[in-house]
Amino acid sequence: MPPRQSTEQLDNGACGFIVVDNGDPKPFRWTVATDGILAAVRRFCQPTRQIGGITESGR
Predict the structure, then answer these.
(1) Is 54 in contact with 46 (CB distance < 8 Å)?
(2) For residue 48, is it within any domain?
(3) Residue 46 lies in a domain
(4) What span, in angstroms and rounded, lies between the C-alpha atoms of 22 and 24?
């Protein structure tokens, strides 16, 4: 894909992709158990909490 020269080209390209991709939709399938997803969210949030000075108790 060539680089975009304007936001209009970027928008048109994104919309074109969405139209094509939605032409043959497939249902989303979870591939990880709920516990795995929640663990990943906790790992993602931990550095943010540390930077903000928030502890596990939310304070």
Answers:
(1) no
(2) yes
(3) yes
(4) 5
pLDDT, one tens digit per residue, over 1-58 is 567 689 999 999 999 999 998 998 888 888 999 999 999 998 888 876 666 665 555 5
Number of folded domains that form the chain: 1
Asked whether residue 58 is assigned to any structural domain, the reply reads: yes
10, 4 contact by CB (below 8 A):
yes
Contact assessment for residue 42 and residue 33, using Cβ atoms and an 8 Å cutoff: no
CA 13/CA 34 separation, integer angstroms: 35
Structural domain contains residue 18 = no
Q: Give the three-class secondary structure for 50.
A: helix
